[in-house]
Amino acid sequence: MEKANHVHDRFFKQIFSHVSNTRDFVQLSFPPDMVQKMDLTSLSLDEKSYITAQVDESFSDLVYSCNYKVKKLIKICLLFEHKSRQSPTDVFQILSYMTNAYMQAIKQKKRQEIVIPIVFYHGQKPWKKKAFHKYFGETDAILRKFIPAFDYILIDLSQFTDTQIEEIYQQKDILRTSLYLFKYIQNRQEIINKIEKIFNFAESLFEDNENENQLKSIYIYLFNNLNEEEAMTTITKLKKTTVRKSKGFVSYADTLIMRGREKGMEEGMEKGETIKSLKTC
Questions:
Q1: Same domain? 177 vs 155
Q2: pTM of the model as a whole
Q3: Residue that is last in its domain, among 108, 137, 159
């Protein structure tokens, strides 16, 4: 399980550490009234992490800074839920995460910045979100004063239909492709069934050299989550597809599988192998 979690975490960070991807994601996923007050041109990746040992059991994070209404700086914290299932402790860990962020500011003698947690969840069962005070059972107005009140933005891919992913993230091909993979990666047969559609979305990515490393990340994430038989089935399907450039992709995938999925893919990244063959087919 730890190995699988590592694979999911790594892919999440590879995609969302690109400011352009996160900017598009925020613009298309956040409440519109909030987006209108954010200066997304100021969005920048922060090297900080507010993950503690306890929170690490459920989440990994990417932290961004952004101007809100020009003068107010806020922290946008992407929390990737890597267990792929909801736990009764998750909401308490989100609160602990926010508290740790505020405590770090105190220790460093810095101005407090509001933390906006975004929970990115790709489990198969829906995430049940409820107000924090409801975790304490029946409470009256007097007792409720002593219960922290906070909120978080939930991105629950189990509640996104394919059509919603395609329409909301239209023309954002990295996001569409990545979200499809996240949504179905735990249902490997579904991934195989949808592979042609997924890589139709990815087709335009071959046109820009800047997408090369992100394409590598997509291929590696896909094949690290398939067994040998499933990988070969996927390649066979892509050999028959009309997706332009698929021949080069298949050649690249064949090479990775022959060298061994996990070991070979990591070595390929370390040796700086490219996917130029994908662009010349």
A1: no
A2: 0.84
A3: 159
